[in-house]
Structures are given as structure tokens and as C-alpha cells.
Amino acid sequence: MAVQTSTQNFDVLSSVNEPLVNRYASRRKSVFAETYDPEADDDDDGARAIFPKTDEQRARLCDSVKNILLFRSLDKEQMNEVLDAMFEKKVKAKDYIIKQGDDGDNFYVIESGIYKAYVGEDQKHIHTYDNSGSFGELALLYNMPRAATIQAETDGQLWAMDRQTFRRILLKSAFRKRKMYEALLDAVPMLKTLQSYERMNLADALIPKTFAKGERIIKQGDAADGMYFIEEGKVSIRIQQDAGEVEISNLEKGQYFGELALVTHRPRAASAYAVDNVKVAFLQTDCFERLLGKVLDVMLRGMKHYRYVDQSVWKMILEACREENSQVR
């Protein structure tokens, strides 16, 4: 079976498949006709897959999934649903976890063990998982056959999630996140110049974060890692002076902060604190540079109203504005 290289590598380097028990005895002929429409699914109280776990098992699972990018945008409730739905699977050396061309039934996260990925009729080795990682999500998300074979090189431990639970949690989460953030971004004046698809891309890149009342969100003098859009609550912007911190601005829903350090490539010029419980949408530095270049001049012009920006920084901002405009043109 011919497999496109770009697809096979991505599927293998981040995906997972079904449990080994009764793998062939109970397989469906095809799952490609199955669909899931997150917009039509408004049932939050339906039956959910829950596999009881000891505290020790749950702690091990939390450690295994903490760096899985697929889960980074899930809120606490959704993450708990993921943990509830995953079941433990022990494998032996030489066991096949998935086979190229099969339907995808499960998503896997590696807790321990070494696994090798092979593609093509000649079973060319293309990747080795060494006690970490995940695989199998593309076949589940996009109703495509497995693009590679995964075989256990050693005994190991996997955590698996069934296809329907995976699709419901991940796709519904992505859908809700996009709708929520599109509404938020529509309320940000500087983003009005973005096309609809550009706002959707921006919405998909945002990461939800929460801060308790009084908690510091960013610290003056720190290196910048991104900017923030306020979803709920109020944020106090303060600068350090000889007599202590002084509040210079108070921001609320629909406003943003943290962009100055990204534009100037300098440390944070002010600190930000949660006035009450605050929810923000966080945009990482690399996404900022990739997605907001088109509105950077609007953002830069708005910075001239920042009272904590000194003349030397303002000159840098103006130069950055001119440079960005020339690059866009």
C-alpha cells in the first residue's frame, strides 16, 4: 500500500492506536463512515468512558500526558475527562500495537518501553519512541488508515483512549475553543483588519490560562514568552518605582497586554496582576510573530499611549513599525 511520506511521518511521530486485547477478533471492517459533528453535539451529560484508577496510576498517567501537545488547550475539566477515559495497557517485546493500513481504534500515550515505527511493504524503520511520546491521533481525527506499523521493541506500558472518546473530547474542545476565542477576538479593535480565516488561525493558536485574585501574571524585567488577551476579569498593570509599585493602567475583557516586550525584544516593561479571578487567552511568541504581523503597525501606534514607555523605547517602536511595514509591503 502506497503511503505519502509527509502523512506517514506526522502520523507516526505523534499518533496512537488501539488496545491489543482481542485486536483482531472484534475489529470492525471500517470506521471511515463514522462522523462526529461537534456543532451538533450539545449533550454534555451523555455516557462517558471512565476507567477507575488508583492514586498511583493516576499520578503516573498525569506524568505521561503532561507534555502531549494535543492536550495543552484542554481546560481542567476536559483534562480530567481525558485521564478518566484512558486505560492501562501492558505490552510485551515484539507485540504489534498498530499495523499500517488498519483502521484506527485507539490513541496511545507511552509511559514506558521502546517502540519502533515502520512503513511500506519493506517495513522501513523511520522512528523510535524511547519511553515517551504518543501516536495514532491522525487516523482517529481524520478517518484515515494507519500510516505506519508500530511494534514494541521491549516490554512496556501504554495508556490508551478509544476512538469516539478521543474525537469527542479533542474535536469538541477545539470547536468550542475556536468559537469562544473568535467572539473574544471580534471584540478586539486592532484585529478588525484580519480576515475571518486569519482570526480562526489566531483563535486556534491561543492557550487558555487562569490566574487567581492577586496573582502576578507577568513580572517587570522578565523575558517575554507571549502576550495575553483578557477573557474575564480585570488586570492591573504596574511599574516599579523608588517608592514601590505604582498602578498605571487597569484592563478588562477584550483588552490585551504583554505585546510591548515582543515587539521591542526587550524585557517586560511592567508587571501585570489579576485584580480578581482572571481568564486569559495566551499567544506564544512564535505564534505572535507568525499571525499578527498584519496588525503590528496598529499595535505599535497604540503603544505611544503607554506612560511607562521611555523615549528610547518609543524610538525603537517607531523603527520596528517602519521595518514591519516595509516587510509587509
Report on this model:
By secondary structure, the chain is of the alpha+beta class. The protein folds into two domains: 55-168, Jelly Rolls; 188-328, Sandwich (Jelly Rolls). It has helices at residues 5-14, 55-65, 76-85, 137-142, 163-186, 196-205, 259-264, 285-291, 296-302, 311-328, and strands at residues 87-91, 96-98, 106-112, 114-119, 124-130, 134-135, 149-152, 156-162, 207-211, 216-218, 226-232, 235-241, 244-251, 256-257, 271-274, 278-284. Strands 1-8-3-6 form a four-stranded antiparallel beta sheet. The chain has a four-stranded antiparallel beta sheet with strand order 2-7-4-5, with helices on one face. A hairpin with a 4-residue loop joins strand 4 (114-119) and strand 5 (124-130). Helix 3 (76-85) runs antiparallel to helix 5 (163-186) and helix 9 (296-302) packs antiparallel against helix 10. The longest helix has 24 residues, at 163-186. Mean pLDDT is 78; it is low at 1-33. Keywords: cAMP, cAMP-binding, Nucleotide-binding, Phosphoprotein, Repeat. InterPro entries: cAMP-dep_PK_reg_su-like, cAMP_dep_PK_reg_su, cNMP-bd_CS, cNMP-bd_dom, cNMP-bd_dom_sf, RmlC-like_jellyroll. This is cAMP-dependent protein kinase type II regulatory subunit. Residues 70-187, 190-309 form the Cyclic nucleotide-binding domain. It comes from Aedes aegypti (Yellowfever mosquito).
Short key terms for the protein model shown above:
alpha+beta; Jelly Rolls; 2 domains; 10 helices; 33% helix; disordered N terminus; cAMP-dependent protein kinase inhibitor activity
